[in-house]
Amino acid sequence: MSTSHASLNELWQKQSLSWEYGAAASPDIEDVPIRVFPAALHESGVTEIIKLDLSDLIGTSTPATTPSLLANYLTIQAEDHIQIAEQTSSEVYFVMRGQGRTETEQGILEWKQGDAFTLPCHQGVTHFADVDSALYWVHDGPLMSYLGVHPNKPRFESAYYSKEYLDGEISKIREAGIRENRNRNGIILGNPASEKTKTMTHTMWSLYNVLPKQSVQKPHRHNSVAIDLAVSADPNTYTMIAKEIDEAGNLIDPFRAEWKPNSVFVTPPGWWHSHHNESDVDAYVFPVQDAGLQTYLRTLDIQFIKD
Ligand SMILES: [Fe+2]
Fold this sequence. Notes:
Elements: H1 3-13, H2 21-24, E1 35-37, E2 48-51, H3 55-58, E3 70-76, E4 81-84, E5 90-97, E6 99-104, E7 107-112, E8 116-120, E9 125-129, E10 133-139, H4 141-147, E11 160-161, H5 163-179, E12 186-188, E13 205-211, E14 215-221, E15 226-232, E16 237-242, E17 255-258, E18 263-267, E19 272-277, E20 283-289, H6 291-296, E21 303-304
Antiparallel strand pairs: 1-18, 2-3, 3-10, 4-9, 5-8, 5-10, 6-7, 6-9, 8-11, 12-13, 13-20, 14-19, 14-21, 15-18, 15-20, 16-17, 16-19
Fe (ii) ion is lined by residues 220, 222, 226, 273.
């Protein structure tokens, strides 16, 4: 063996570690917490990006809301603009208020309150607002950061979901959902590139979900993390979140997250949650999850309480 080989062996050996199986098979890693991000955060009257950053709690090296996703409020004052450049493979936007346009390499996308759209392999865009506007923006930059990669190949083409399209699609399923007492009355947003996983992008998933007045959607759980945007709701509309359920399927010691319009709450992976609307007005929610990735890995494991 040459001297250079021997020295490399010596050098690499310094990196080798091992742990006794029983002590390390289930490492003590930070949990994703339940967290609420109020709408007041994006009502300060300046153009800015507000990162819904939990990196201090979940121990990521870059800003993150969950290990794989970063959610943001993006506020743009009237006649102002903001430039965005993050290393991501998927971005999901929902327009919380206002109207404006986004200038991309492919051209200009016009948007207004209630619209949603996606971007792949982000190389930088600029958002312009005609009036005071706020966008909910979630991307998988933390996953790219963890993998140490700079995505350079789009895995899907951008999609635009107008408010009219979303409302039209949901009205088609609303009545049947109520009649059949389905656990969900929502439409999962898709893209031709995600036919297999039935998700909005290859890593991210979103649902436009109506919670009809005076209704309950019973508990369920999944291994994806949910970052839910409450789009519209009257008081006494909320989600109950708990780590465990009892034998009767009731949540044990649940946390109550209110659906305050244009606010966000995080549901940890694997935790049980039920949605409740005790008001006389239908409520809408737009959850974003890393369920594209989880579905591809066959690890989503969604479970519902049996009737
Ligand atoms: Fe869920």
